[in-house]
User: What shape does this take?
Amino acid sequence: MSDIISAFGMVAEPFSLGCLVFGVWIGILFGAMPGLSVNMGLALLLPLAFAFKGISGILMLLGIYCGAIYGGSISAILLKTPGTPASVATTLDGYPMATKLHQPGRALGISTMASTFGGIFSTACLIIMAPLLAKVALQFSKPEYFALAVFGLSIITSVSSGNVIKGVMGGLAGLFLATIGIDAMSGAIRFTFGTNYLMGGVSFIPILIGVFALAQVLQSIEDHWNEVRQTTRLAIDRTLPRLADMKRVFVTLIRSSAIGTFIGCIPGTGGDIASFVAYDQAKRWSSHSEDFGTGVPEGVAAPEAGNNAVSGGAFIPVLTLGIPGDGATAIMMGALMVQGIQPGPMLFVDKAPYVYAIFLGLFFANIVMCLMGYSLIRLFAKVTQVPHVVLLPLILVMTFVGTYSYNNSLNDVCVMVVSGMIGYFLNKLEFSMSSLIIGIILGAMAEQNFVGSLIMSDGSLNIFVTRPLCLFFLIAAVIMLITPLINFGKKKKKAL
Amino acid sequence: MKKLLALCMLVLLTVALAGCGGQKKAAYPADGDITVIIPKAPGGGTDTSARGLIQFLQKELPGSKFVPVNKPDGGGITGMVDLAKAKPDGHTLGMVTVELAMFPHQGKATVTNKDYIAICAPIAAPAALIVPKDAPYNTLDEFVKYAKANPGKIQMGNSGTGAIWHIAALNFEKEFGVQFKHVPYPKGSADIAAALAGKHIEATLADPSVFKSQVDAGKLKILAVMADTRSELYPNVPTFKELGHPLTIRAWAALVAPKGTPKDKVDVLRNAAEKVCNSKEFKDYFKKQGIDPTAIIGDAADKMLADDDAMYAKFLKK
Amino acid sequence: MFSMLICNYVVAAVFLLLAGGMMYGAAAFPMAMTEQGPGPGFWPFLLGAGLALASVGLFTFSLARREDLAMKQVALTEEANRPVYKAMVLLVLFCAAIVLLGFFPAMVLFVPALMYLLKCRNIKWMVATTAGVLVFVYVVFGWILNTQFPVSIFLA
Assistant: This one.
């Protein structure tokens, strides 16, 4: 008990809280801007974190971490441009709600509420169930990761709002793009056409920015010429979520947050997978799944709760095992260690006040994020009122700047431009860009764990069916793939 | 017509602005920004060490400004190539990693250590043999005996086929005449740590810093390290050299300048690096993160790069 | 206007060709099972085969639904599409200008050009927007984040 009180004392200091607020603010900005990643923000502010004594620096980093995952939703909803890969799923219903339904405030409000809910839910799980979830996470070996990847890929059928076949084609193309470069499992160099640039694989962020942001800008140019008049003189709708929305979305929030926390605690998986799985599950369990993609509140709440729930979940392996779940948590682990706080099994024993301070830090970071979000929604939503003549060139320049600052590579910019042009045409032909992105994200995970499992089993495919957790996800994936076809068959029967 | 004129003025103005960059009339290294190209993504081990080193150097050389730039595309090769091609005026430096010694012999890169002048190497993580605490072997010899009795059974985790820890394991096999099952974990050492903790693999040869918390908690044990001297963080762990097998495989990262950089500028940097790498704060900074700090400066660093290049040339020639 | 039916056929054909290329490229790598698992050519070949299958599937599906799909129109050569294609050319020129003139000068030329394409003829707005974007990028990215933008190859 005294530990909790001393932790509270550490966190409640004005300077510490100030660092936290500053961190959340920076996080939201980095998250909202495509091309600026969480890791970049953390790495840039790390020297500052070291300079601050005690827990303040850590709180700042926690703020950046939570803020960035939320920040991505802002550009996703307003500009159909995910600021971070974890916000891709938010574009599916967020952007239609903001533009077709003219309710950007409502979309941003739901997103803020969902993100805060997800963050706090996962922090609660972290506090209550960390050792239990850590045990489950340790069960994950290569077969389980492969099964999870296949499960993730089965989402393609639900996310491709147009033609399922086209979604599958996009997904396969994405999977193939992920094979380009040095194959880490065999050492072979695949499909690089002899260039150094492709050795490290296809650059994911430039393609993401291209097929979403640039393609959308090109489409907007066409719409502008078609005089698709948006009644931009409409006042910003109310931002605080209505009670009706909150009731409707509640079950979705719980389900999505649970999914996000679980996926977060598995090392190596992150917000991108969590948001897609959450969106997919929300759609499947909904009574009106055909409406998804037109601007449904569950469609905004699910991915946002899912991706923010990863923040608490990712700390579970960090604090209990001392193993970082991804790049961002690895940076924060380093920061903790330099302050003399060694994450791992000994942490709860040696430095309990610091553990509670991290819990409190996560909790407050989410609260601050919520408050900041709501106070700034009106400001953000005004973006939709900026005339296209000014907005489109601005976004276009930002895509170039964002892509360039990601890797300091002009090659990336060219990739982005080409992907944007191709994306424009594919969008017109009703291909879903999300399936392409899912393919690229999951490609390495699927292939490397498939090959790795076969190495471990000496070539026997039995390994996939004898392990219970792996089998569970594979069966779930098959069910996911088959149900749309069964529903399709049922609909046809009804029509007859 | 007026619009065209206005536009041209604006263009000229920006070209002028962009070209200037603000020259200061001071002595090197305070006479302009020094770019440090880091061929890895932000947040990784190399990046954090590089940024830490740069911070300390900046304090040691007043007036200087080091600007880290991440160029991870192409697996880091693009960054290293850019560095080799940069103007050798002392204002472009970069980090290179042990992959520089391996890639040319694997056909993955055309740059070699001869394209750079080393300034210092702040980290040189040795390959450490790490096994679970309850494994039936407590020393290197017991491990080798077990491996000989069970060929191809011990699952040895590495960070990717053809990457440094895999090469270390292959070297081990050759030296001791044993056979492992190599299991690659391309996402890196953190995944290997998770796999060891979950008992999915039996051993690994890797950089011990990621495993520190597990070792300290008593879940894992380190049997030996492939280094010249014992690690400061694990003083009870013998080196392979002591046990009669002089294997030294390290994942180092070095701050280098492109070949042709004037000697006086290189010396300024080397002197500063010498003071920094031997200072207590520097050592503490790395030790707290579980990384063994090294103070390999100047020509010694050059030698390390050349030695490793020769070693990998021989080993990978087959 | 093109009908969705024709577009589907074209896309299916293009992807079929790409899939063929994938399988051909993958076949250059060993596919057999070794102690390192299946060879590096195995998975890409599988993907190429899958894509080929999907392309055929799309073709058959389009064939089966040809009446419905012929009704659906895709706007590719309408009046509103031409500014988009002009914008694409502009983008390529922008990339070239970045290399030749440096980032900021190229941007100063690009932004007004794009605004002109969007039917803007108001000089004040063009200058204001260009200046605003210039300042924003320079301050936030150039100064605070220390991003080093490409400089003209003539100056470097």
User: Anything to note?
Assistant: The two ends of chain C are 48 Å apart (CA to CA).
